[in-house]
Every structure is written in structure tokens, then in C-alpha cells.
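cron nightly-structures :: item 1 of 1
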Amino acid sequence: MKELIVGQLQNVDALDAKGNFILGAATGVASSALVLQTILLSLHLQSSCSIFISAHLPYLPSLLNQSFFILLVLLVYIIVIILVIGAYRTRNYYQVPDPRMLLDNLDNPERDSKDGMVRAMAAAYEMNEEETNKKVKWIDLSLLFLVIETGMLVLNLLYQVAC
């Protein structure tokens, strides 16, 4: 039983590593998008594509028309950061045996102490599993938005290159 709890805590460390990767990758994608957008805007300020965007977004200023995709990428980047922060949020994980519990049960018969410890281990495992599942959901959502962010960058690049 104790090995299961140790395994859970190792899983939490692995999830934190995944969150760290997602945060780094999202920052890299957003940075690449900003740099590439600047280069591409300087190469062709007026193109057939900017006319296409102006026709569909006539009320936006010209610079905003040209930066529409990059603004969407940055918005998704902010969402990724918020989700990763949710995954990184400090949570309480339980390990058994708690030394205080052992001292409190020192006068009890060995069988009662073992029964209490097994129950505490089972309860700790369930509570840790619940917290780990929350972390997994945050990580999965942030990964989904990282994929969306990357897809938006690719679409923006294809759009810019085609023009």
C-alpha cells in the first residue's frame, strides 16, 4: 500500500514536468509567432490577403487587420498559461504513516495499530488520487490549448506565405 502512495507522488512529479514542458512550448510558439508576424508584416504590408481580411473585418484599423491572427495566438497563449498555473497550484498530498498517529497509537495492540494504518493508507491514497486527477485535467486542457495555439500559428504562416 505504501508503494502505491509513493507511486502517486512520483506521478505528480511527472505531471509537473509535463506542465513545465507545455509552458515552455507555449512560450516558444507565442515567441515564434511574434517574430514571424513582424518579419512577414514588414515583407508585404499590402497584399491580396490584407484586402480579403479588410472585406471581412471592415471596422478594424489596418494594423489590427494585419495582426488579427497573432492576437488570437496570444489570447490562446494566455489561456495556456492560466491552465498550467491551475495544474501547478499547490495541493496537499498525504503520506502514511503519519508519525503523530503512530505515537498516539503506541499503547494500542499491534493489530489495532496495523488496522488503523491500513485504513489511513487507503484514505490517503483516495485523497491523493482525487488531487492527481484534478491535476491531470488541468494538464490535458493546457495541452489541448497548446495544440490549438500551434495550429493557429501554422495556419497563420500558411496564410501569410500564400499571400
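cron nightly-structures :: done
DSSP finds six helices and no strands in the chain.
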